[in-house]
Design a protein that fits this description.
- The complex is a heterodimer.
- By secondary structure, chain A is mostly helical.
- Helices cover 73% and strands 1% of the residues of chain A.
- Chain A has 13 helices and two strands, in the order ααααβαβαααααααα.
- The N and C termini of chain A lie far apart (47 Å).
- By secondary structure, chain B is mostly helical.
- Chain B folds into two domains: 366 residues, Orthogonal Bundle (ABC transporter involved in vitamin B12 uptake, BtuC), CATH 1.10.3470; 70 residues.
- Chain B has 19 helices and two strands.
- A two-stranded antiparallel ribbon of chain B has the order 1-2.
- The radius of gyration of chain B is 26 Å and the shape is globular.
- The chains are: A mainly alpha, B mainly alpha.
- The interface between A and B is large, with 44 and 42 residues.
Chain lengths: 336, 456
């Protein structure tokens, strides 16, 4: 019994939150990696682009709520996803046309692209703050929990409760759906193959008649979907605050590089690696161990490897270690 | 002379802008902006050495700035004797444990061939060392943080004059740059950018959360100053006489004695804050001028030529027998050390150390915009960039407010669009900086004052 209790504690406080957080990071990391593979630059506007899409979801949620449109027990925000994605893609294409395409045609070095994306980051941040302001917003409605701790305790008769927030379940399910559609698209369809060819060797791809404009367009469309959905899921699970989204760029980069930048599958796993590392290293194991060892040996301290203040630092340290030992990432990077 | 005409023109415009702020807003604000412009200029000189001379992209400027700030606390604050007695020994032991760990790992790496056992050995040393560190550090840290937590709760510094801390900041930042350079300099440009950004985040989060070191997010206030205090000036006779001399005409117009005394004391209060700011301006200006002369000399020296050769073609420079790894590491340390000086200068100017305020937006990306906008590879350009961008960063909000009021003046006061726009005026600074950066990168990719290297 104690053993099951211990497992429940661990699942409740580490595994479920890490899975949800990892899914959100994974979507962002695939977005980064896709831009890196096809358009060949590190996009420093990642966090703010995600924030931009989410902003529309927040505003539309408020609008739908005011006219009484909803999905019952599901959050209204799910209804706004398609609209937010469309706005996001339009914004990305606009930026691509006025900013990035010039440097792409000139074949500028990646560093210049990165600096341009810093400019885009500033502009996007300004637009977001002017439209919606910098404050913290919650836009979750509908049923909050799928499984409550008390219900679980009654059901199983255990000491420990297991909670499953609806946002966590939604996050994991939607991520799996989106990612599997994307991998199917990249690997099985003709357009996906042409994208991979373009990423692999641009000149050869052009010689074999692949239209670069089309590849770029499709990339931004997929990127728009990933950025918006990732942003909305994060916002539903925690809350929407532009500054936090900007900061999230850093663990997302870490996830993309740890997985091997340019490799979507690597980025997908990288997201979970970063999330699990962050949560497992900063979790206080006191209660978990208390169930496993006899009462006399119960630990006095929190049994925490690092305090939660260092949550971000953990993921960055992992990145530094990966860069030192295996600079190409866990899975070999570059090429999708 | 014609060679320098655009440099002189650009700096004159900048000076006029600051004077305009002085006339229209207040001289105190103008001097504050000027001081921060000078501090930014030091940062851009540092970033320009790395990016403009050697082509190294360092997005970790925030970390070096924070370390410079930390140096002010560690050098100039008086030591907290009680805290040293309570836990100083533990911290010193920890320091030695770290040294022993590093020596052991170096020994293993040097004298044993690469094998599974060596890797296990290193892992064992690291894990064992960390456990040992935690065991020794925890009671010490708790004891230190318990010493009068509202006021101190940290070890304090060395109690030296604050100007020494600027050198200390350079050494701390340079030391970090050495470690970062050893780890990350082999990476490709954009990887290097991300890696340095993340390492800087780690550094800042350590400064934020290790309260025994510099009080962390509880901030250190009331730091020493290399300039006199306003309150001392206001009571010293020579300063009052000086102010009286400046304003004899104005004061003689007032007839009543008491009114004249009141007017004088008000003038003295205003003048004292301006005097203090002028002292800082003098100090900062001398740092900028010294750095400018040194970097300018370096740029035209054989060493500068070597760096440009490495930047423009690594393979060719390497084939000519230049040690690229060494030169990169050296210039990375040099640039970071200058940024460290700037960080120390900034904390000295503010008189307080607030680790929570170090954010990548303000201390990395804005500095980079300064370098790109000003002109990479040209020291005059980089300094100008620091001035222009900082000026815009501060003055964008008032200017935006003015424009919003102008364009919405036909709308009623309570119009929701107008109210919303006025509320969001501070965020127009991001827009101005972003659009400025994009425009410069597109139409003048080498910056306002581009790099001009003449071969004599």
């Amino acid at each position: 019994m104690d053993f099951i209790n211990a497992i429940v504690v661990l699942t409740n406080f580490t595994i479920i939150p890490a899975l949800a957080y990892g899914s959100q990071l994974a979507l962002g990391a695939i977005f980064v990696t896709l831009i890196y593979a096809v358009l060949r630059f590190a996009n420093f506007a990642t966090g703010d682009m995600m924030s931009f899409g989410t902003m529309f979801a927040v505003l539309l949620t408020y609008y739908f709520q005011s006219i009484g449109l909803g999905l019952g027990f599901l959050p209204t925000a799910l209804l706004t996803i398609p609209f937010a994605i469309v706005m996001m893609i339009l914004y990305m294409l606009l930026i691509d046309k006025f900013v990035f395409s010039y440097y792409r045609i000139k074949k500028s070095p990646p560093v210049q692209f990165a600096m341009v994306s810093v400019g885009v980051m500033f502009v996007t941040q300004a637009i977001i703050r002017i439209i919606i302001g910098p404050s913290d917003r919650r836009f979750l409605d509908g049923e909050k929990f799928i499984l409550k701790a008390t219900e679980f305790k009654e059901m199983t008769g255990l000491n420990e409760g297991l909670t499953l927030k609806s946002t966590q379940a939604i996050t994991i399910v939607i991520t799996l759906i989106i990612v599997s559609i994307m991998f199917w698209f990249l690997n099985k369809t003709k357009t996906g193959t042409s994208m991979r060819a373009y990423s692999d060797n641009e000149d050869l791809a052009l010689l074999s008649g692949i239209d670069p404009k089309r590849v770029v367009l499709i990339t931004w469309v997929i990127a728009g979907v990933l950025a918006t959905v990732g942003g909305i899921l994060y916002g539903l699970d925690k809350s929407y605050r532009p500054f936090v989204y900007f900061n999230n760029m850093l663990p997302i980069f870490a996830a993309a590089i740890v997985g091997g930048i340019g490799n979507p599958f690597g980025a997908f796993l990288g997201g979970y690696v970063i999330a699990f590392a962050e949560i497992l290293i900063t979790y206080a194991y006191k209660r978990f161990i208390a169930y496993l060892v006899p009462e006399s040996m119960e630990p006095d301290s929190l049994m925490q490897l690092l305090s939660t203040d260092y949550k971000f630092a953990v993921s960055f340290s992992i990145l530094v270690i990966v860069l030192l030992i295996r600079p190409s990432g866990i899975f070999k990077g570059k090429t999708i | 002379m014609r060679k320098y005409s655009n440099i002189i023109a650009a700096y004159s415009i900048m000076l006029v802008l600051i004077l305009l702020v002085g006339i229209f807003q207040s001289w105190s604000i103008a001097l504050t902006i000027l001081n921060y412009c000078l501090i930014s200029a030091v940062m851009t000189i540092g970033a320009n050495i790395q990016w403009g001379y050697a082509g190294l992209i360092n997005f970790g400027i925030m970390g070096y700035t924070a370390l410079g700030g930390l140096a002010v606390v560690l050098v100039s604050v008086d030591p907290v004797q009680q805290a040293w007695q309570a836990g100083g020994l533990n911290i010193l032991i920890c320091f030695w444990i770290i040294v022993v760990m590093i020596v052991l790992i170096r020994y293993l790496l040097k004298y044993f061939n690469k094998s599974k056992y060596r890797t296990y050995g290193i892992a064992f040393i690291i894990i064992g060392g960390i456990l040992l560190l935690r065991l020794t550090a925890t009671p010490g840290i708790e004891a230190i943080e318990a010493v009068d937590p509202a006021k101190t709760g940290f070890l304090g510094g060395m109690g030296l004059p604050v100007l020494f801390s600027w050198i200390g900041g350079a050494f701390l930042a340079g030391g970090l740059a050495f470690i970062v350079g050893k780890i990350a300099l082999g990476l490709r440009a954009d990887y290097l950018a991300i890696a340095t950004l993340l390492i800087a985040e780690i550094v800042v989060s350590i400064i934020k959360h290790e309260e025994w070191l510099a009080r962390g997010v509880k901030n250190v206030i009331g730091l020493k100053r290399p300039a006199p205090y306003e309150i001392d000036l206001q009571t010293s006779q020579w300063f009052i006489n000086l102010v009286e001399k400046f304003h004899t005409k104005k004061l003689s117009m007032i007839n009543s004695f008491t009114e004249r005394q009141d007017a004088l004391s008000q003038l003295v209060i205003d003048a004292s804050s301006i005097y203090v700011k002028l002292c800082f301006t003098g100090l900062f200006l001398s740092v900028v001028i010294v750095l400018l002369i040194v970097t300018q000399k370096a740029l035209y020296s054989p060493w500068g030529r070597k760096m440009r050769a490495i930047r423009d073609n690594e393979e060719a420079a390497s084939a000519m027998g230049k040690n690229i790894v060494k030169e990169h590491l050296f210039i990375f340390i040099l640039g970071s050390a200058i940024v460290g000086i700037a960080g120390a200068m900034m904390v000295t100017n503010d008189g307080l150390f607030t680790p929570g305020s170090y954010r990548p937006m303000r201390y990395t990306f804005v500095i980079w915009v300064m370098v790109i906008v000003g002109g990479t590879g040209n020291n005059f350009g980089a300094i100008l960039g620091g001035f222009v961008v900082w000026f815009l960063w501060v003055e964008a909000a008032p200017m935006a407010l003015f424009l919003i009021n102008l364009f919405t003046s036909h709308l009623p006061e309570t119009n929701s669009v107008r109210v919303h726009l006025i509320e969001s005026a501070p965020y127009f600074r991001f827009l101005v900086i972003g659009i400025g950066l994009l425009t410069i990168m597109r139409y003048r990719p080498k910056g306002i004052l581009p790099e001009k290297i003449e071969i004599k």
